[in-house]
Amino acid sequence: MKQLKGKLEEYLDNCSIRRKLLILYIFCVLLPIVITDSVIVYIVFHTEEVSRQHEMENAASAVEYNFTNRVDNMARIAENTYTNRYIDDFMEKEYESQLEYLSDYQILLKNTVLERRQDSTLVTMYVDNETIINGGKFHKISTIRDSEWYRHMKENDQDQMLYIFYDKSRIASHNNERKIVYVKRLDFFISDKEKLIKLEMDYNKTVRDFVEMKYDMPIFLCHDNKITLSNRGQSTLIMDFEMFPEDKKVDYSKNIDIYGTDLSVNVLKAELVVFKEIINNLPTILFLILINVVLPIILMKQINRSFTIRLWELSEIFESVEDENLLKLETVKGTDEIGSLMHNYNKMAERTNDLVQIVYRDKLREQEINIARQKAELLALHSQINPHFLFNALESIRMHCVLKGEDKTAKMVEKLALLHRQYV
To answer: For the chain, which terminal residue's Cβ has fewer other Cβ atoms within 10 angstroms, N or C?
Structure first.
């Protein structure tokens, strides 16, 4: 750790101020902003995603409950009819005439609840009895032997079923229509006659109720990969069921088994509110990003300029230390630490120059005095050396004359030496 810290300090010591400020901006401003914003965005999107997932699950459960409840209501009506003795006797009876049938039919309607229900479910009963008249609530079973739903029930040997199909027969009141029917065999009472009850769901009302659930996300109730119900417009009564698009990504699916019919509730993810809000406020977000990124860069450049220009001025001034006089900064910029350093440098340069001048002048004066003293000593010595030299020379000549016996000349030289000796 200490080694790493040492290398970092060494690296920073060798970096320019501009690079140091850039490193400071990246690691202390830009990265924290990016990381913080990323975490916040992730939390918001994750929360929105979890919320959407719960909404999709709740929507699928609501659709399941709504549709299952409608089918169960039809099943309860069928169950009440299944155990109704009056209705069974009416269907079993062999009628002698149409008048007798109509009379018994009116009595049956008065004594049962067939006409007193408030819902819009269409109830039709079929019986293998050729003496009844087709119409109202009862029909001969021969009229539906070729129908799609009847063949399906026979082929699968079912006692009750939910069947969803597109009715192309001419028997339908509005010609071709989408149909959702619940069919049940009426075999509670022992009989050799085949009896059925068919309850047809009001498709248009079901679609309206489905849409009025007002879910934001697209929801599809599908059977055999065909769209049975949808809150996105694929529920036109007279059109055949559309296939569920393969290119649509199902974000949540729930399978339902209702009386032998497999259904699936496919929920597509709605557009994220957060993402939508981001798109709507994109100019503001880009402006904020611009401020967070560009403004610090501009300020960093200005701060770097404030540092480097004045430091370069100091660096250039320091190069003058080799000259006799230190140059002073012409202008001192700022009152910060660098400005204080520049001001103190000027004071130091002024003081140093003064000291240099004082020391130089004193030293020069001392040198001049020394030189003058030396010259005086030399002159004095010179003035002393010349008489002695001459006296000695004359004394040598006198001795030479004495040796040669020239006494007269020796006396003359002696007098001359004495004369010069007086001035030494």
So the answer is: N
Sheet containing 138-140: give its strands across.
138-140, 122-127, 195-200, 177-185, 160-167
For 159-198, write each residue's pLDDT tens digit.
999 999 888 775 444 456 888 999 999 998 888 899 999 9
Extract the residue ranges of the chain whose pLDDT is less than 50. 171-174
Residue 121's nearest CA partner among 228, 176, 198 is: 198
d(CA 10, CA 19): 14
Q: What is the pLDDT of residue 174?
A: 47
| Residue 294, number of CB atoms within 10 A of its CB | 10
How far is Cα 302 from Cα 76, in angstroms, rounded to an integer? 82
CA distance to 195, 238, 378, 379, 392, per residue, from 369 (Å)? 150, 131, 14, 15, 34
Q: Specify the residue for token string 């040997």.
A: 157
Instruction: Find out whether 412 and 424 touch, Cβ atoms under 8 Å.
Output: no
What distances in angstroms separate CA 45 from CA 32, 62, 251, 287, 391, one per listed residue? Answer: 20, 25, 16, 21, 123
The whole-number pLDDT of residue 196 equals: 94
Distance CA 310, CA 124 (A): 100
CA dihedral 168, 169, 172, 175 (to 10 degrees): 60
Which residue from 306, 125, 118 is spatially nearest to 202, judged by alpha carbons?
Answer: 118
Torsion 317-318-322-325 (CA) sign: positive
Domain regions of the chain by residue span: 51-267, 323-424
In the numeric block, which tokens belong to residue 67? 């549709």
> What are the structure tokens assigned to 243, written together?
């296939």
> In CATH terms, is domain 51-267 a member of 3.20.20.140?
no
